[in-house]
């Protein structure tokens, strides 16, 4: 009798989202205002020019003066939105256990959402209270999108977990760890920055680092107001000090999680500093002044770090945020008289050339469906979502496919990839197309072992973007055959 032996060839693809794509495509902010960057059209600005690719104005779910945050899938499907107290699912309903979080709608940045490492369905929701509050501190809760029929629940057993207790600042930021899996959580209270490790097991309540700079003006709780943001390449830190009229800058290392080189600059021409944004390429910084004569200032990062004064750019925006299309979008509220009530508006401002200094800004009065106040959504500087395989392995001497997903937006867009399979074989160069985000390479490992594959994206100017890495577990496989089982692929690491 003839024996039949079948050999199974394993082709396992690893998909790594190394940068933010469409996770930031939905904005819910203000008094039920919002923007949808998945639906684009043309709009006419106040100067009668027509701007294409404008996001659709929508009715949002949150009702907030300031702090808010949203998160979407990699493909741009809204998952949930929040003001720091209540979490709304994609249909606008309050999630089970989704009320009673300890942020505050009057905090500059009431919270932020971070994908939980090693999970495809869970998110950390980090909240920050209003300045002067001593009861809440920085806390986090876990949202699981696999629950409630895919609409998500806030897990009752993982809700309002303390990260930092006592009085804290009204800011929060998150940035991917260079290990390609975890995150760093960043925060400023008064003159001190703190960094916390974010891993699959939770968010540490013990700071990874604290660093203090006495040049940061602190005369009271008003100095705890103002945004904290990180550059698109994760290496630059920008914060603003509301009543100190300051722009605070620092260098950040996403590999070590350490802040260094904290510097301050005062913009004496404004009474407050509130919002902050980087250009997509990270070379320019923009700072807004809130509702007292709303205006925007700019500088280059190099100029700011070398002591060059930030300069006035334009009147109009109270706050500003980078969109996924490489533009900056601003909203406006204003105080018509000293000491009077602040007036919210439906106005929208668009800086179309932030990489070139923001000299082209278009004004769209009454563009929004609902009114905005001060706050725009907070997002991590980037998103990582590693799709885990079940105990992946490959057989020596057999071909295997590896894949990555890359970002083509803004200053992150590469023109080629270099694949190093970690076994001494030649580096493979792969050209990047503007219409393609998924890339694969096939490789055969001759001998067993654990190999680290690195994929290095290169930009057009020759500089490197963030390196992607993955592990290849290669073993010697054997075949066992008997009369009842024609073949069985054995792998002791799978047993």
Automatic annotation (TrEMBL):
Domain of life: Bacteria
Record carries keyword Signal: yes
Keywords, alphabetical: Signal
PROSITE patterns documented for this protein: PKD
Xref: SUPFAM superfamilies: Calcium-dependent phosphotriesterase, PKD domain
CDD domains reported in the protein's UniProt record: PKD (cd00146)
Annotated PKD domain residues: 414-456
Annotated signal sequence range: 1-20
Pfam families: PKD
Matching InterPro entries: Ig-like_fold (IPR013783), PKD_dom (IPR000601), PKD_dom_sf (IPR035986), WD40/YVTN_repeat-like_dom_sf (IPR015943)
Coiled coil stretches, renumbered: none
Protein name (database record): PKD domain-containing protein
Lineage: Bacteria, Pseudomonadati, Bacteroidota, Bacteroidia, Bacteroidales
């Amino acid at each position: 009798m003839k024996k039949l032996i079948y050999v199974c060839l394993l082709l396992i693809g690893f998909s790594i989202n190394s940068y933010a794509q469409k996770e930031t495509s939905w904005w819910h902010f203000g008094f039920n205002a919002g923007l949808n960057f998945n639906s684009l059209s043309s709009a006419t600005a106040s100067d009668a020019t027509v701007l294409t690719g404008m996001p659709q104005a929508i009715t949002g779910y949150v009702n907030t003066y300031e702090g808010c945050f949203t998160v979407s899938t990699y493909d741009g499907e809204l998952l949930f939105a929040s003001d720091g107290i209540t979490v709304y699912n994609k249909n606008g309903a309050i999630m089970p256990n989704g009320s009673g979080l300890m942020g505050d709608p009057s905090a500059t940045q009431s919270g932020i959402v971070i994908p939980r490492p090693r999970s495809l369905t869970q998110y950390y929701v980090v909240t920050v209270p209003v300045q002067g509050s001593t009861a809440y501190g920085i806390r986090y809760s876990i949202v699981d999108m696999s629950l409630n029929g895919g609409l998500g629940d806030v897990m009752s057993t993982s809700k309002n977990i303390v990260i930092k207790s006592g009085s804290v600042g009204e800011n929060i930021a998150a940035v991917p760890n260079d290990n390609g899996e975890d995150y760093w959580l960043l925060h400023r209270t008064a003159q001190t920055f703190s960094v916390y490790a974010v891993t699959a097991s939770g968010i540490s309540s013990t700071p990874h680092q604290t660093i203090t700079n006495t040049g940061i003006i602190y005369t009271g709780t008003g100095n705890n107001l103002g945004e904290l943001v990180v550059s698109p390449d994760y290496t630059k830190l920008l914060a603003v000090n509301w009543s100190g009229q300051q722009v605070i800058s620092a260098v950040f290392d996403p590999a070590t999680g350490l802040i260094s080189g904290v510097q301050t600059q005062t913009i004496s021409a404004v009474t407050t500093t509130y919002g902050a944004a980087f250009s997509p390429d990270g070379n320019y910084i923009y700072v807004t002044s809130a509702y007292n004569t709303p205006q925007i200032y700019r500088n280059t990062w190099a100029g700011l770090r070398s002591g060059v004064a930030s300069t006035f750019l334009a009147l109009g925006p109270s706050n500003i945020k980078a969109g996924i299309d490489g533009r900056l979008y601003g909203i406006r509220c204003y105080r018509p008289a000293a000491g009077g009530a602040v007036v919210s508006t439906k106005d929208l401002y668009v800086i179309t050339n932030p990489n070139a200094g923001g000299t082209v800004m278009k004004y769209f009065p009454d563009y929004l469906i609902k009114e905005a106040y001060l706050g725009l959504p907070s997002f991590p500087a980037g998103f990582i979502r590693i799709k885990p395989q079940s105990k992946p392995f490959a057989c020596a001497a057999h071909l295997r496919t590896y894949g990555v997903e890359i970002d083509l937006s803004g200053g992150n867009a590469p023109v080629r990839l270099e694949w190093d399979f970690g076994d001494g074989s030649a580096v493979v160069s792969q050209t990047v197309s503007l219409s393609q985000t998924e890339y694969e390479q096939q490789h055969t490992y001759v001998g067993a072992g654990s190999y680290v594959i690195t994929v290095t994206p290169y930009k057009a100017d020759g500089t490197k973007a963030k390196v992607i890495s993955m592990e290849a577990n290669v073993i010697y496989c054997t075949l066992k055959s008997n009369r009842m089982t024609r073949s069985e692929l054995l792998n002791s690491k799978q047993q």
